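ERR on first pass: missing label on line 2. Operator R.T. fixed the label and resubmitted. Corrected input:
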Amino acid sequence: MIWIFYSHGITALIGPSGSGKTTYLRTLNRMHDMTANVKVEGEFLFHGKDIYSDSFDLVDLRKRIGMVFQQPTPFPFSIYENVAFGLRLGKKVPKRVLDQEVETALRQAGLWDEVKDRLNTNALGLSGGQQQRVSIARVLATKPDILLLDEPTSALDPISSRVVENSLLNLRDRYCLIIVTHNMQQAARISQRTAFFNEGRLVEIGKTRDIFLNPVEKETQDYVSGRFG
Ligand SMILES: Nc1ncnc2c1ncn2[C@@H]1O[C@H](COP(=O)(O)OP(=O)(O)O)[C@@H](O)[C@H]1O
Ligand SMILES: [Mg+2]
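pass 2 clean. output:
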């Protein structure tokens, strides 16, 4: 089966708990490399090159395909240092450039206005939703093509969750976002394409509208109409 992610837009991965969404997502930037007894089959072509080929540099890969997790993961540093972190890896960047890139990433993550006057305060003092947007800004700072997000709002309260969702909506014209969510309303609100997983298999993928209103597979129909999961 060939599955294409377009360079812009949001693909939602939905399915019951334990259906393999996270496992699949993690194959897309080789997060399983460090896990024993894992066998990955198939190819993932990124700009025409299989990311599992030996010639792919892992650090470079993870800058270009970034990952955001369920729990916000700021480091116990300042907001500024969190976002600058990936930019500093392995090279010296002039302060002026760094300032600019940190600002751009925070703007894209929809957080700049809230934190611009306290960039040097500890990121751990922010609310959950703000911390999650710091995590997103940190990934954006390295200028990825793809953002992988594993239930990025499920640890947040509904208001913060909406704010983060809106930030993702603002990113979808510029980035390829692949987002695991167990919240079907969220998938319907933000994604253009949806993939339904069940029992470790990709059952069906298509336009979000079609998956919710007119799926091909009965299994998908049963899930989106709330018959299981
Ligand atoms: N295709 C697969 N082959 C083998 N094991 C799988 C596969 N997909 C998922 N699993 C296993 O099933 C469990 C749940 O998968 P996970 O990806 O965490 O589900 P989800 O994120 O949908 O809740 C994990 O222990 C994982 O190792
Ligand atoms: Mg999961």
